[in-house]
Amino acid sequence: MDSKSFIYENMDNFVLILPNIRSGHNVGAMFRTADAAGVDKLYITGYTPCPPHPQVDKVSLGAEKWMKWEYCKQTGKLLKKLRETGYNIVALEKNADSQNIFDWQPVFPLALVVGNEKTGVEKRLLKYCDAVVEIPMLGKKSSLNVSVAAGVAMYTVMRKFKIKYPIFNI
Question: Are 87 and 110 in contact (CB under 8 A)?
Answer without folding.
Answer: yes
